[in-house]
Specification:
heterodimer; A: 331 residues; seven-stranded mixed beta sheet; five-stranded mixed beta sheet; 14 strands; B: alpha+beta; OB fold (Dihydrolipoamide Acetyltransferase, E2P); Chloramphenicol Acetyltransferase; four-stranded antiparallel beta sheet; 13 helices; 33% helix; THDP-binding (chain A)
């Protein structure tokens, strides 16, 4: 990781813009594609000003056709470009799912390593912003299931820029999940210039001996809040920000779980088939004898994310997380 | 090709020893011809041919212990084709032969095992981490009593156990370690240990010398059946004393005439006569169908003490036998039992059981355990000369034998048991009365 001396205070979405700007400036191979990302700057303004700066050939407004422009990006990636496509909401990605699963994720395998697909798919995800239905999906595990696709999910501005640059430089397709709830909810110090956050590496946010709390994206602040509450009660949580969902930072998880013997996993995706299940399997495989209590999951429920009136009931809250922590502590 | 496998020939067996093959490669055998003799925990059995054919290959050698399901030999089927179905039928025939005994043990689900046992066999509540701590400290987790939720063993329980063990008071044989054991670590373990062993505490590990006996084979089978019986049948035992002076005199007379008939043969015949009048003691309770099946045939089991434990060969159709036949059959079966040569047929299908403990010496009484699913069992105790007040108010010396009769109180009541033993006493005390029954 290179760290520039100068930093600026940015929101998460601004950090993404900064990362894209950095890479557009560095290499002509970097091309942005998406609906309304040019003149309009994207539905969340993540590409604001970039078309003006780099031109219509570098920042391309596409027709409303996810399968079309994701497919086009795959072709560009195979032919030497480094395309970054924007899906307006993760819930809109399904028309492109076929392109992603049958081409992007397995071209390296299919060509015995002759071709890789160095592209990035940016997708704002998650609930909590009072968006309509399908605009709030958190279906990351649909993409972690297929080997070949890397999946990252920053929770703060620093990681967002560093991961974006790493994703663009990565030889394989990366699904870049952007927690829209965190886009503007906080600011962070972000170095100017180029630096990377390594894909496949999580981060320990707090040290603790009692319980490991694992989360990512928009759920990291929730986990942190719960951990702070529990600290008042004398329970020391070790909060992990997974940052990459595929491949998972197994060493980080196992080391922490072996230390604490207790685990709470927080994600807003549905429980069934969620990444939390994979984490529990991992813990079962690698740290079984260290378990003092069954791992708990605090997740969204097994329903589509409800309309905004009920959104808060669907999403994990610090209260729910704290209850789970108490449960594993009292087991 | 037909593979002949060792199947469960009854009693839920899992393995058997190969005694000998009764055929050799090239032999032609007909369906049901015996092929190989195997020895199980309880009996010697012959595995029959599932169908006609020629023996191709014998796969094992005598003395080998094999699991149920092991292929014993391969035979060539004359008519060809797949005969697994027929093979199944073959095994079924064998099972039918042993029907009553198998019918009992084929339903292990009905056996009620005491709760404590199952708890000790794998229902220990402890997290993986606690188990790891126990393993690292060399603690057998089964010995630790849990103080966590629902009695779960927690890390602290293990560590406390280790501490107390180091102090020299932890027991290693008793499941359910009590935390309230007085803390003697302060008193000093060296002083404490001899005191405990002097007090004869078996729970104390050091200072107690013990021998270990294997608990398997016939002993385990007996244990299994006893538990099944005792946990299923509400036992009630009725005691009676019988004056056998007349019987002894009669035996002397018969003996003088050149015939020796054991007293037990008379007992068995008298019981059979009694069972005709009180068939409820020669019955089988079928709880499922809510019926008591009164069995017409008297297959009387005789408990035989062998060096390997109790075994109960069965004299079949006693109701049709005369005393001499009963005596002969009893002698034959007892010898087979002592030689360990009983077959499945010899030990299955009993409907009533007797236990003659007299020769061993017990004279007062016993509370015998019924052979499930039978309804009664009679024990005969040692005959002793005792002073008896006669009907003429005189004291006489008579030979008295006590009898203990255990019966299933679900099926019969005490009054019936008394009536039954009264009838038995009547026949034995006036043995010539039996003549009337034999006419």
């Amino acid at each position: 990781m290179e760290t520039a001396l100068q930093t600026k205070t940015l929101t998460l979405v601004q950090a993404i813009t900064d990362g894209l700007d950095t890479m557009l400036g560095e290499s002509k191979e970097v091309i942005l594609l998406g609906e309304d990302i040019g003149k309009n700057g994207g539905v969340f303004r993540a590409t604001d000003g970039l078309q003006e700066k780099y031109g219509e050939d570098r920042v391309i407004d596409t027709p409303l056709s996810e399968a079309g422009f994701v497919g086009a990006a795959i072709g560009m990636a195979v032919n030497g470009f480094r395309p970054v496509v924007e899906i307006q909401f993760l819930g809109f990605i399904y028309p492109a799912y076929e392109q992603i699963m049958t081409h992007a994720s397995r071209l390296r395998m299919r060509t015995m390593g002759h071709y890789t697909v160095p592209m990035v798919i940016r997708a704002p995800y998650g609930a909590g912003v009072r968006a309509p239905e399908i605009h709030c999906d958190s279906t990351e595990s649909l993409f972690t299931h297929m080997p070949g696709m890397k999946v990252v999910c920053p929770s703060n501005a620093y990681d967002a820029k560093g991961l974006m640059i790493a994703a663009i430089e990565d030889p394989d397709p990366v699904l870049f999940l952007e927690p829209m709830r965190s886009y503007r909810s906080s600011r962070g110090e972000v170095p100017e210039g180029k630096y990377t956050v390594e894909i496949g590496k999580g981060k320990k946010l707090t040290e603790g001996e009692d319980v490991t709390v694992i989360s990512w994206g928009a759920m990291v602040p929730v986990a942190m809040k719960a951990a702070e509450e529990m600290k008042q009660k004398g329970v020391n949580c070790e909060v992990l920000d997974l940052r990459t969902l595929y491949p998972i930072d197994k060493d980080l998880v196992i080391e922490s779980v072996q230390k604490t013997g207790r685990t709470v996993i927080v994600h807003e995706a549905h429980a069934t088939g969620g990444t939390g299940s994979d984490l529990i399997s991992l813990i079962n495989d690698e740290a079984f004898l260290y378990q003092k209590a069954p791992a708990e999951r605090v997740t969204g429920y097994d329903t589509p994310v409800p309309y905004f009136g009920f959104e808060d009931h669907y999403l994990p809250t610090p209260k729910r997380v704290a209850a789970a922590i108490e449960k594993v502590m009292k087991f | 090709m037909v593979e002949v496998k060792l199947h469960d020939i009854g009693e839920g067996m899992t393995e058997a020893d190969i005694n000998c093959y009764l055929v050799k490669p090239g032999d032609f055998v007909k369906a049901d011809d015996p092929l190989v003799e195997v020895q199980t925990d309880k009996m010697t059995a012959e595995i029959p041919a599932p169908r006609s054919g020629v023996i191709k290959e014998l796969l094992l050698s005598p003395g080998q212990t094999v699991q149920v399901g092991t292929t014993l030999l391969v035979m060539e089927d004359r008519s060809g084709g797949d005969h697994s179905a027929e093979f199944q039928k073959g095994t079924h025939i064998v099972k039918n032969e042993a029907e009553p005994a198998v019918a009992v043990l084929d339903r292990p689900a009905q056996v009620r095992v005491p709760v404590g046992v199952s708890a000790r066999l794998g229902q220990i509540l402890a997290s993986p981490y606690t188990r790891k701590v126990a393993r690292e400290n060399g603690v057998n987790i089964m010995e630790v009593k849990g103080t966590g939720p629902a009695g779960r063993i927690i890390e602290e329980d293990i560590l406390a156990f280790v501490k107390l063990k180091e102090a020299g008071v932890a027991n290693t044989s008793k499941p359910g370690f009590e935390h309230q054991v007085p803390n003697v670590s302060e008193a000093g373990s060296e002083l404490q240990a001899p005191t405990l062993s002097e007090a004869g505490s078996e729970e104390h590990d050091s200072g107690v010398h013990k021998d270990t006996l294997p608990f398997r084979g016939r002993r385990k089978q007996i244990a299994k059946k006893m538990v099944q019986s005792l946990y299923t049948i509400p036992h009630c035992t009725h005691f009676e004393e019988i004056d056998v002076s007349e019987l002894i005199a009669l035996r002397e007379e018969i003996k003088a005439a050149g015939n020796s008939i054991s007293a037990t043969a008379f007992f068995i015949k008298a019981l059979s006569i009694g069972l005709k009048e009180f068939p409820v003691f020669n019955a089988k309770l079928d709880e499922e169908n809510e019926s008591i099946q009164l069995l017409r045939e008297h297959h009387i089991g005789i408990a035989v003490d062998t060096p390997d434990g109790l075994i109960v060969p069965v004299i079949r159709n006693v109701e049709k036998m005369n005393l001499k036949q009963i005596h002969g059959e009893m002698k034959r079966l007892t010898k087979l039992a002592l030689d360990d040569k009983l077959t499945v047929k010899d030990i299955s299908g009993g409907t009533f059981t007797i236990s003659n403990v007299g020769p061993l010496g017990g004279s007062i009484g016993a509370t015998p355990i019924i052979q499930h699913p039978q309804t009664a069992l009679v024990s005969f105790h040692k005959t002793k000369k005792r002073p008896v007040v006669t009907d003429q108010d005189e004291i006489a010396i008579r030979s008295i034998m006590n009898l203990s009769m255990a019966f299933d109180h679900r099926v019969a009541d005490g009054a019936t048991a008394v009536a039954f033993t009264n009838r038995f006493a009547q026949l034995i005390e006036n043995p010539k009365m039996m003549l009337l029954e034999l006419m």
